Amino acid sequence: MASMLASVGSRILGRRARLEVTDVFREHEGTPFVARCRVSGSDSAPATVVVKAPRPWKPYEPDKPGGPAAAIFTEWAALEWLGELDVPDVPRLLGADREPGVLVMSDMAHDRRVDHVLLGEDPVAATDALREFGASLGRLHAATMGKDPDEWRRRRERLGPRADFDRRAWFAEQVAHLHRACEAVGVEAQGIDDDLETLREAWNAGPHHALTHGDPCPDNLLLDGGRVVIVDFENAACRFAPSDAGYARIPFPSCWCVGALPDSAVTQMEDAYRAAAGFGDDAEWRRLMTLACGQSFLYTVPTQVTHCLEKDHSWGTTGLRARAPLRSESFAAAARDSGTLDRLAELASGIAAKCRKLWPDDTHVPPYPAFRLGLRQKKKARGPPGPRAHTSD
Predict the structure, then answer these.
(1) Residue 251 in contact with residue 217, Cβ under 8 Å?
(2) Residue 66, SS3?
């Protein structure tokens, strides 16, 4: 790694530039190497940079689709495009080297991430962080909303080949998972075809598509002063933008860090997003959030249900058995609010009820620690609340 960094530093930052690792941010196997490096030997380069490179856990083959190269090239294309559009809340790509698959980015001088705040003790700081996340995400989406989706494809394919992906076949596979989950817990899946087709159409290209992050989880959100910087664009793509924007209310479907959130915190996050991204119509927003929650329900809940039939599987702050009813109820609540996708929402409510009956000791999702005291006080005053994806405060 040292010799690679030396050669990369000179090629990207100047002939005499050298990189020295000072902090390693990502150490677990199966993910790219990410570290802060001190820069020496260059008067024009910044004092520190962040370097991302593939690990030797799997061959790095830049001329073949998939594998470690796919994540590197996806982030490269995303940051390059966002940099040209002057999006403020993402790292700047200072340079890249295709041969070893190395990205050199600006160092965001953060001291904490949003997951640190959610797992802390300050509800004001946690609410502020979620609101700033919404604003940053809104600015990110606004920069590419309505642009030609082929622009993203061209940028990504210029760097290296992409694996073939049949969207229709993949969606059909998710629907098959849903039917298997319904059969496993004893819920009839009937009359939902039209709602599923509505979800599928939203997933295809449309006016609400933009370059999305794809994994805007709390540990990918850095706190830099009073703003949130979004990092790790390895899963970026042009998609239905509300799928990113619904991450707080779902909540955080691709993350280990899951907990209940107060309604007010979710509302502040979404209001900040809407102001930045230009989603002003309330009825339309409720419809879009229903689609986002419906997609999350379809893509995550059926596999979680079938995977946990015999025993729960722990991941981060909660087990998978708790996540399935949480996300099912979040979708059902959004559908009731918008008056759309009612048949699929009824099915989701049935799955949630069956899960809670089958696994009565495993389906509780506690509030994030930052909000725990306040929500406990409300619960004591009001009595036990009904099951919800986020909690009224």
Answers:
(1) no
(2) coil
Residue type, position 214, single letter? G
Burial 185-210 (b: 16+ CB within 10 A, else e): bebebeebeebbebbbebbeeeebbb
pLDDT, tens only, 363-386: 999 999 999 975 555 555 445 444
Which residue in 107, 6, 8 sits closest to 48, CA to CA?
107
| Residue whose structure tokens are 């893509």 | 299
CA 1/CA 54 separation, integer angstroms: 10
| Percent of the chain whose predicted confidence (pLDDT) is above 90 | 78
Q: Answer whether 20's CB lies under 8 Å from 47's CB.
A: no
Reported in sequence order, the residue ranges of the chain that DSSP labels E, i.e. its strands, are 18-26, 33-40, 48-53, 93-97, 102-106, 112-113, 209-212, 221-224, 227-230, 237-240, 314-315, 318-319
Distances 150 to 98, 163, 347 between C-alpha atoms, Å = 22, 16, 36
Give the Cα-Cα-Cα angle 139, 144, 148 (nearest 5 degrees): 170
CB 46 within 8 A of CB 13: no
Which has the closest alpha carbon to 115: 131, 126, 128, 100? 126
Mean pLDDT is lowest, of 40-44, 305-309, 336-340, for: 40-44
Pairing of strands 227-230, 221-224: antiparallel
* Per-residue model confidence (pLDDT) at position 7: 74
pLDDT by residue (tens digit) across 266-287?
999 999 999 999 999 999 999 9
Distance set, CA 44 to CA 91, 97, 180, 294, 340 (Å) = 18, 19, 59, 49, 56
Which runs of E-coded beta strand occur in 27-128? 33-40, 48-53, 93-97, 102-106, 112-113
List CB contacts of 186: < 8 A, sequence separation 6 or more: 354
Other C-beta atoms closer than 10 Å to the C-beta of 377 total 11
Confidence class for position 43, pLDDT limits 50, 70, 90: confident
> Which carries the bigger pLDDT value, residue 15 or residue 184?
184
Pairing of strands 33-40, 18-26: antiparallel
